[in-house]
Amino acid sequence: MKRRLRLWRALRRARAAQKQAVPSSSARLITRALTANPGMDDRLVLLTGLAAVYEASGDLPLAIDTLATAADLALPDHRYAAPLLLNLSLAYDQAYAVTADRAFLDDAVSAARRARRAVGETHPARADVLNGVVAVLVEAEEVLDRPELLDEAVRAGTEVVAAGDGGRHNLAVAYRSRYERHGHLPDLHAALRHAEDALDRAGAEAETAAELGHILRLLYSVTGAEEDAARAVAACRAAVESTEPDDEEGVARRAILAGALLDAYQAGDQAALEEAVAYARAALTADRDERAFVAAQIAATVLTVWARRHRDIEVAHEAEAAATAAVRATVPDTADRAVALDTLATALYGRFQLTGDPQPLDEAIETGRNAQAIPTSATDHAGHLGNLGTSLFDRYTVTGDRSDLESAVELDRQAGALLDEAHPERGMYLNNLNVALRHRYEVTGAHADLEESIAIGRLATRDAPTPDRPLRLSNLGGSLFVRYERFGDLADLDEDVACQREAAELLPDGYPDAPSVLGNLGLALQSRYRRLGTEADLSEAAEALGDAVAADALPRDRTAIRSLYGQVLHSRWEAGGEEADLRGAIEQARLAVEATHADDPALPQRLGNLVTMLESAAGDSPAAAEEAVAAARRALAVLPDGHPDAPGLRSGLALALSARGDTGDAVREARAAVEETPPRHPDRAQFLINLAYVLRERRAETDDVIAALRQAALLDTAPPAVRLRAAQAWGGLAAERGSHADAARGLSLAVELLPEVSPRRLGRTDAQRWLAGFPGLGCAAAAACLASDEPERAVRSLELGRAVLLNRTLHTRGDTSPLRAVDGALADEFERLRDRLDALPEEEATPFSVGPASGAHGGDAHARMAAARRRERRSQLVERFADVVRRIERLPGFGGFLRPPAVDELLAEARTGPVVMVNVGDDRGDALLLTAAGLRHVPLSGLRAERLNEIAFEFHRDVAQAHDRSVGRAAREEAEGRLADVLDWLWTTIAAPVLAELDQAGYARSGRTIWWVPTGMLAFLPLHAATRRDGGDSLLEHAVSRYTPTVTSLHLARRTMAAGAEPRAGVIVSMGEDHADRSWAAAGVEATRFAERFGVLPLDAATVTRAEVTEAIRTCSDLHIALHARSDADDPSRSCLLLAGGEMAVPEIAAIRNERARLAYLSACETTLTTAALVDEGIHLTSAFQLTGFPQVVGTLWAVRGLVAAHAAERFYDELREAGGDAGRAVHETVRYLRDRYAGFPSAWAALHCVGA
């Protein structure tokens, strides 16, 4: 919410007439004598003087009667008529000032209009009369709220200026007043122009300088420019300095300067606030006269700001005293009294903000009601309504009284309606209305309120001045966040993050609402992290909330921020497992609860946060479980019946009860939570999962558990990650009990949801982390499908559930010529956005800070914001890319654009040889054979995931031992023997049954090619080298083996193979190092020989630039790389080639596009090795070169000694020539050669393999 700090808006001239004792009876005698005198000029002069005597004696009615008599005598065309009518108008104005009777102002306006009509173009006093008319009309409009009076004032003032008779000052006042009434910027610019002209002509004239300062302050309120605030200060300072010591306006001008300095402070000049306070206090202590109101009102405003900025309760009391003095200095029921009361209400509200004490808030509301009951101008009345609405809204947040919320909505609506659309203050009231409507939606669920809230919030932020923009953006974001929470549209959350981030960037130093803005940014980022798993969002959320906690927030804001910070720390604990984060989360949640008043509507939510965090500690702490149960019950006890937060709290209570061992009560509460939640509500899925959990803990019927999980998984309004976990658990439990069809349904759904939890907008690191959370999901789904006799569904599960990132990228890099033939412009746009996405650098998440950061605007805050903006580019590009894809899909014949191929399309890939998918499940192993004749299924009875995992781990341990020269020869030979045992196991368990089935399918063994799709840890083993230990059969004797991560990737690789491109070879080798292993040096020599064979100069990675290496990868059709490489066991995307200038990791290689690529030969260490958690994603150097565009990539499963690598490469290129460029067949023959040469040493001959088409 935003409260308006009302500053005195106009300098008024006060008339200080001395009272004299003139008997009214004598005056009447004089009047009768004068009216009988035939000399008209003398009579009029004497009547005017007599009126002055009456006014001085305090008898205004008689003065008015006398002036009215004189005016009647002078009409219609006497030269004194216009001045007399002006004096009559001024007398009526004085009568209003004394009595507050608006009828006198109506008479003043009537007399002023008559004066204007009476003054001719040649009248010697024309300029003075019209100037006086302008002053009367402007002052009267402020009370009468008749905007046409300002139009008349501008016309009258324009006539004076056009005649060259001065009047620029009053015309500036008229334009400025009309701007304040309507908010039309041309009026403000005209006011500025005339005030500057007036000052130029009059020199250092105090009154005009003061008016110019006023106008510049209004300009600052529009632009928010520090320069405009500084100019206003300069003008107001000039007014003060040019005021004579005995000038009665001096006090008011010093107070106005204090107000201008307050603006400068809000624009960023931190020192200005202290000077503003000094001037305000000086004005208060000066001799008082009728201008005490001006000084006291501005002083109260300035002191209120100081008190809030410095959390100084003593100054807050001083502000109240000044505001009370302002009230006493005004006449009841006047506009000045209304302004003074509003100022006092603001000071009282400020004390409530500092202390949280509801008493001053109640007083502020009562005082605000008194202020808004007094008729004033539209602008002032809007301010009084808006401030009262803010106080009522805050009382609602303290007490939960719905009537206060309803009143706040109505008052905010009225305030905005009073002002023209262009009025600069209207946005402030719209901002307040946005917040009030959002909170009413949260209570009632009325969707119209939420939609109006967002629409109003957008209007409030449009053209918002700089000082107000951060808060308005943050409040708009808050409404978008609420809509996201209700409907789950990620676009709303993204826009919320954008609003909050822009708001945080705009925060000036010392901004009083900075902690709240940073808190809202943290909330938005944490929510997006929970939705998408973007680690950078969680990191930035922790930093923002750490800054907010470290800032000096108001008590109520500090409590809310602590609660949010606890949530982020809890998320960080979930992500990283650091116990310090869990302890910190619980501590922050406890502090937030302790600081929350028992009647505060936010208490249940904060208790709910504490429950969540305590549940996480309940497994190791019975005391935490007890505390969680007590907190949840307390939260439910204070919620009104039917509150939308009740189901969530009840579900949390169920988990706490279960942790305590009260499983019966836990089930009852969990069921109630589900029953109380609307059927389509997104949170219902999580409540169903919680129900399933407590049922499982109670050893309930599995049918009930599965039913709850099934409902959760099928709720399409729930977040994809929640549905995926529910579907995975549903399928897993169904498989355990032997319900294979139900298991297949659940696990297949989980696989279909997998791409949704790792959308394209995620960076590689975040996507990998998400996918690593569901290892083996595709295999489990395929196993369930095969158990229920659904082999085609099993194929689909393996394709969708594995190599998600690889397939997604290969899809976008497919052939666009069919699209180009239909819509060339759309094809260009698709390729342009695709290439921009590919070119985005992968950014590592910022490390989490330990404890609060150095401050919201510390040295690295803007750098963090810049990094955040760079991350947002991916989201923006992805949304544009998705829009282009949707447009393409609407074209005839392109409905399946970028979608995975159907099973019949995958079967078509077997036209040049069978594709064998080997699935490894927990309880079964299977081979799915895609053949030209159809799909065939071969159960593999000896293949189980647990046993395979052990074999793969031991295999690579034995490879390391076989290469370890620090151990004895016998130990190395024993290791080689164990490797041969694994090759035998691969033959017996997989290769032999598959070959037998292919025999039955009519495939000749001689010369045939098999594309293998290994799953799980089978990808770590050399299936192509499967060989009987006794020297009998070997797969090498029966088929050429190639690998492909998925059938889809094979399908896409074949579609993108370069045809007819001019061959261009390239060799990249590292020759500049002093290698300890002379065999590696030999490999370098061999690579140089290949360069000579190809007729190219080798690139020495030890000396050339990174750009030259990149260019070679981008442009060479045939590429040979002989470099050191490193596989990262924790993050396979960090696997890299080692260059002199650093590392070239998987993402950088994969981002390179090569349109002519044919073959890449990677003579480097373990190029096809990945990590166990992401084995089915196929993230390694070999796949990186596939993504670059190479349809055939030769790599190794483990590091091979340099001499062996040199022999292998030499033989490969010989065989490649014989095979007509068929890399798979060349590798096959090379491995056979190496097997014969290094018989008995599988570590030397079995690593080389070919991946791709």
TrEMBL record:
Residues 982-1252 form the CHAT domain. It comes from the Bacteria. InterPro entries: CHAT_dom, TPR-like_helical_dom_sf. Coiled coil: none annotated. It holds the Pfam family CHAT. This is CHAT domain-containing protein. It comes from Actinoallomurus bryophytorum.
